[in-house]
Write a structure and sequence with these properties.
By secondary structure, the protein is α/β, with parallel strands linked by helices. The protein is built from 10 helices and 12 strands. The strands form 2 sheets. Strands 3-2-1-4-5-6-12 form a 7-stranded parallel beta sheet, sandwiched between helices. Strands 8-9-7-10-11 form a 5-stranded mixed beta sheet.
């Protein structure tokens, strides 16, 4: 009989979007972790990476796990999934991980209202950690933004500026929206009622209470976010600059390990990091 304080066996994790930049980064970090192991690597049917060893694809040693599109085979072999893919792929996969009761860590951004509904329904069946950003720094920044918004009040205008690499397909970024939600909570309003995502042409004066967004795209920028509180005669800027995708991978793995054994529910990185 095992001792009640014995360390749990390594968490068996599948990587969704295994051939992408985040998927390969995750593969490297999972391979190096004593607390988890790669049990599956998922890609879409037409991916050129199907059949390749995920270890070799990630630039590490072969691990004997081939990239596949067979979701059911992968889910039978694992305890959880880390998912940085597309909204459509995430919702399709989520229905299946929920039915199987597997931990699902979602780093996918750009989900619409219907996608968010799928997430909430799935969270009734299994533990889900979803965040627009998995890094400690960004989630600490969100806490600071909420506090600043509450303290400074309506006399300070809020603008959120973000920049990402030229291949990013959604805007504003998930992180920008995460920070916007934090600002809205600080002001006790709904972001949907306060957000201004586009300004073009003759817009008129800025409305009191607006939370503005500006999205920049170019080059190979991993991710930069600045929340500006602009008052009369002074300006406060809270910023975060990601220099590597490594921090997102570390955060996602930490989230998966934290969620192991948790009751069904929708959790955030604030829960994982104890910042809620």
């Amino acid at each position: 009989m095992s001792h009640p304080n014995a360390n749990p066996p390594p968490l068996k994790l599948a990587i969704a979007g295994a051939g992408g930049r985040m998927g390969r980064t995750l593969a490297r970090f999972i391979s190096d972790s004593p607390d988890c192991q790669i049990c599956g690597a998922l890609e879409h049917d037409s991916s050129p990476f199907i059949g390749q060893d995920i270890g070799l694809l990630a630039g590490t040693a072969a691990c004997g796990v081939a990239v596949t599109s067979d979701i059911q085979a992968v889910l039978k072999a694992c305890d959880g999934v880390i998912d940085f893919t597309t909204p459509q792929a995430t919702t399709h996969l989520l229905r299946q991980t929920a039915a199987a009761g597997l931990v699902h860590v979602i780093g996918t951004t750009g989900l619409d209202a219907a996608g968010e509904t799928v997430v909430r329904e799935a969270a009734k069946q299994t533990a889900i950690v979803k965040s627009g950003n998995m890094s400690l720094g960004v989630n600490l920044l969100a806490v600071l933004v909420q506090k600043a918004a509450a303290t400074l009040g309506p006399d300070f205008d809020i603008e959120i500026v973000e920049m990402h690499h030229r291949a990013k397909v959604d805007a504003p970024s998930g992180t920008a929206l995460l920070l916007g939600e934090a600002a809205a909570r600080g002001r006790k309003v709904k972001l949907a009622d306060a957000a201004v995502r586009v300004r073009d042409g003759y817009t008129g004066a800025r409305q009191d209470g607006d939370i503005g967004f500006a999205a920049l795209r170019g080059g190979s920028v991993v991710g930069e976010h600045t929340v500006i509180f602009a008052g009369s005669g002074e300006r406060i800027e809270l910023a975060h600059k990601a220099e590597s995708r490594d921090l997102f991978a570390r955060g996602a793995i930490r989230a998966a390990l934290w969620a192991r054994g948790k009751k069904p529910g929708l959790y955030s990185m604030l829960d994982v990091l104890g910042l809620e």
